[in-house]
Amino acid sequence: MKVPFTGGPKRPKLKTPDDAMTLMEHLGELRVRIVRCLLAVVLGIILIMALYDWVLDFILQPYKDLCNSKPVGFCGPGTTSAQLYSLGPLEGLTTRLTVSMYGGIILALPVLLWQIWPFVVPALHAKEKKFAIPFVFSSITLFLLGGLVAYLTLEKSLEFLIAWSGTDVRATFQVSKYISLVGLMVAAFGIGFEFPVLLVFLQLVGVLQPQTLKKQWRYAIMIIFIIAAVITPSGDPYSMLALAIPMSIFYVISIFIGYAIQRSKRRAAEAAAAG
Questions:
Q1: In which region does residue 135 sit, left (phi positive, over 0), alpha (psi from -120 to 50) or beta (all else)?
Q2: In angstroms, rounded to a whole number, what is the distance separating the alpha carbons of residues 157 and 174?
Q3: Largest Cα–Cα distance of the chain, in whole Å?
Q4: pLDDT by 10s per residue, the chain, length 275
Q5: Is 214 in contact with 166 (CB distance < 8 Å)?
Q6: Residues 6 or more apart in contact with residue 100 via CB below 8 angstroms
Q7: Taking the model in full, what pTM does it have?
């Protein structure tokens, strides 16, 4: 007698937050999700590698715009064009791999976040699990928004860094160093823009209260500016303000969202008591 194929072991359904999976079930699920994440990243890397020239030109555009707007010699001796230099036989290859890896991870973000979320969901109640899609969508949107702000800020950051190098110093950038700066800026801004998602999640699970955030807002804003100054790779004031100001705005917005969550929970509790 043939046994029908069911597609492999399925994750047991957890009816309450107190339900638990066995250690072997956790390890089996973790293996499957790691494989899915790796496949998504590899596919993203392949796509970016195929479009490498276009991607590199896009990354270089802020530097090109800066050089075109400045007098001869600002971006290198006797030139107004942006040029990157490879100082080793392997630097071109390693740079291509680095760009492809960064781009692959960004393209795979929806899959990565969707695979990470189920490990958080069992700790939440049924009414809170409905926030899965909004959380994943908002996380991706805010990360991409942060990367966009970093990209738009890059020209001013480069201008500041080159100008402050000194009048006798001429800019000659290694391609690997330039890509590293862009990658770190996108990562710093992307992670910084995830700040409201973290605050809303902590309020959702009851770790933080909006009243506490409102009471401590002065200290929070000061800490935000300090963090922005520390994690900004270029260290210039333009990047610091471009990161700190949106994070401060997001802090205030997260307080209003926290109050909305409290009202929703209160109404649900009153309805349950009345019923």
A1: alpha
A2: 17
A3: 85
A4: 444 544 444 554 544 444 556 667 667 777 888 888 999 999 999 999 999 999 999 999 988 888 888 777 667 665 667 778 888 888 888 989 999 999 999 999 888 888 877 666 655 555 556 667 788 888 889 999 999 999 999 988 888 888 777 666 677 788 888 898 898 899 999 999 998 888 988 888 778 898 999 999 999 999 999 999 888 887 788 889 999 999 999 999 999 998 988 888 888 777 777 76
A5: no
A6: 45, 46, 48, 49, 52
A7: 0.79
